[in-house]
Amino acid sequence: MRNICLLVSYDGADYYGFQSQPGGNTVQDKLEHAILTLTGERLKVHGSGRTDAGVHALGQVVHFLTGSSIPAERWALALNARLPDDIVVRAAVEVPPEFHSRRCAVRKTYKYAITSCRFPDVFERKYVFHHPAPLRFEAMKEGLVHLLGEHDFSSFTSPLSTKPHHVRTVYEATLNVEPGGDGSIADGRGKASLIISGNGFLYNMVRIIAGTLMQVGEGKRKPEDIARILAAKDRSKAGPTAVPHGLTLMSVEYGPEWGIDWRAAMNRKR
Which residues are annotated as active site (predicted)? Predict the structure, then answer.
């Protein structure tokens, strides 16, 4: 059996998330059906992580075991011909048998997109959360600093989390702001992208961080409250879970021992 690894992008607006559900209509279901029509194999694809209903991905990574002899460089085109338009396989590589897309990941990066313009952008409504009131961007940036490093993120995960512990390490957390079109950044109007990278994320963790950070931006909390919320290890101390459509899984990274070079794979002649 061969182990094939795929780099996948998808618009999650019309799906019940990545992981297969009893009702179907998930990204995993679509990928497995495309493989079935291509090779005749009923197999399971494993993702680097679950994305909830409505959440998007630019760089989701999946792997699966196959008996097919299709060359690695042919998988992307072959699967895209059998997938809906809102799911695209960007590249494929063959990896060692012991590789696992979730267990071998060393770094993941998410983006949560917010606009504080007075009016929503009709073309971005499925990908950016519209916050019609001004936001204190500098205060939000100050709050993010408290998330850096290794912490117990129990305050920033759903009570439904099934993980044995909630300790995670955040490597980077930034808020990038650009003009929004109907007001100045100084007035709290703009398009903000929360970019957060870590060794792993808990259920709803990024969305709860985004919801809490927006409360800092609204002036309902102080930047230093983020540290107190972390120390409390209590979900009720944090803010609301931000809506899913503003969240995108940007990338998943692996150690050099797996030999995954997506840039080379995407440039390889097919």
Answer: 52 (nucleophile)
163 and 195 housed in the same domain: yes
Could you tell me how far CA 40 lies from the centroid of its own chain?
30
Catalytic residue among 14, 29, 52, 234: 52
pLDDT digits (tens, 9 = 90+) for 103-149: 999 999 999 999 999 998 999 999 999 999 999 999 999 999 999 99
203 is in an annotated binding site: no
CA angle, 39 then 18 then 24, to 5°: 70
Find the CATH number of the domain harbouring 83: 3.30.70.580
The answer to whether residues 90 and 8 touch, using CB atoms and an 8 Å cutoff, is yes
Task: Name residue, tokens 């059996």.
Answer: 1
Do residues 124 and 237 share a domain? yes
Lookup: tokens for 26: 């998930």
Catalytic-residue membership of 52: yes
Estimate to the nearest angstrom the gap between the alpha carbon of 33 and the chain centroid: 23
Element (H, E) at 138: helix 137-144
User: What's 129's DSSP letter?
Assistant: E
Q: How far apart are the first and last CA of the chain?
A: 22
Structure tokens at 127: 């990908």
pLDDT of residue 270: 57
Amino acid (1-letter code) at residue 258: W
